[in-house]
Amino acid sequence: MHGFMKNRKIGWRQLPANRYIDFCVLLFLVIFPLFRNTYWIYVMTGIMAYMIFALSLDLLWGYTGLMSMGHSVLFGAGGYMIGIASAYANQADWIKFDELPWFLAPLQSEAGAFLMAILVPALISLFIGFFMFSGKIKGVFFSLITLALSGVAELFVINQSDYTHGNSGITVVSRTVLSNNRDDTMPDISFYFVVLAFLAGAYLICSLIARSRVGKVLQAVRENEDRLTFFGFKPAAFKLMIYTISGMIAGVAGVLYVRSQGSISSSSVGISLATLVLVWVAVGGRGNLTGALVGTLVLQAAQTQLNSVFSGISSEFAQYWQLVLGIIILLIVFLIPKGIVGTILEVQQKNRDRRRKERILKLEEESHGRK
Question: What is the reported pLDDT for 10?
Fold first, then answer.
């Protein structure tokens, strides 16, 4: 029994540091509503939706090496499906059409709207990925094309004001997963735990993919795509698959964000959000999933708190919170380029290597002593 407990303790010590961080983040999110008011529960619900969005990008960028600078298009596509469905169901004042066009007809059904919010981002990523990956576009060219895509998508949403309400955006009145009925709104704390459940599910799915054989191939794509091709694999097929899965997860994040925050606008598909999610993942540390969670949580919570503090000083001073947050981000990026979690994992590995080296030297000294 003593040996079993000892081995179990050693097993816990062998876990990477990010597993402990995962547990701490989960525990923090579970108990968060107990010591925060309704406003902060509302804010944290939106942050958790963004955390799912960051996970989808980390799966693509951190594990596969595809830095998408237009990932917001997939997030916004999912959100807009719910926004249009909600506006049509409640006959918003700005709607000028009696029936939805055939390609948006599934939005008339609550389940159809949810499926569209997942399938449309998946189809967008599948379509774009097919042409880019079959054309062997990668690296900085992939990033530039996706950046251009986010700019085009933002202009498209603004111009299609009959369905998207242009720059004004769409207000979503029901805080539920499926229902578009304004009377079916869930209490803030109930919906908070619904989003938390989705976050846990998204993390588990991403973790299973990352730890599977497919995940190992994706990491090989990131490290040396040419060598992987030499061994008989088809990197384009794996990249297309993970891009599509990432798009579906981003679409779910868009749904939850719109449902929790009550609106969506053209900025949700544009360059600003696409850049933000890159910063969240980079600051947290990419390629381990935990960094995406930590980076999003820390930066979004800091943004809300700084905005509140600076606004409380004076209305003229309120605009400078962005400058302070920008300085903090730059310091993190320059001082710890591998991100918060990436740096912690690097330090842990160095300590383990040092202890292993010390044990080997000690064994060698004992061996020489016996001789």
Answer: 47
Q: Is residue 184 part of a domain?
A: yes
pTM: 0.91
Per the domain annotation, does 281 fall within a domain?
Answer: yes
**Structural domains in the chain (count):** 1
Which of 85-94, 236-245, 322-331 bottoms out in mean pLDDT, i.e. has the lowest?
322-331
| Mean predicted confidence (pLDDT) in 90-99 | 82
Computed over every residue of the chain, the mean pLDDT equals 86
Distance CA 320, CA 182 (A): 37
- Phi, psi for residue 363 in degrees, rounded to 5: -65, -40
Instruction: Report the half-sphere exposure of 145 (CA within 13 A, side-chain side).
Output: 15
pLDDT at 156: 92
**Residues ≥6 apart with Cβ < 8 Å to 87:** 94, 95, 165, 170, 171, 172
DSSP letter (8 states) at residue 305: H
Residue at 171 is within a domain: yes
pLDDT at 9 over 70: no
Contacts of 92 (CB under 8 A, 6+ apart): 165, 170, 171
Q: How far is CA 161 from CA 24, 88, 98, 166, in A?
A: 44, 14, 15, 4
CA-CA distance, 84 to 166, in Å (whole number)? Answer: 12
Report the alpha-carbon distance of residue 131 to residue 126 in Å, rounded: 9
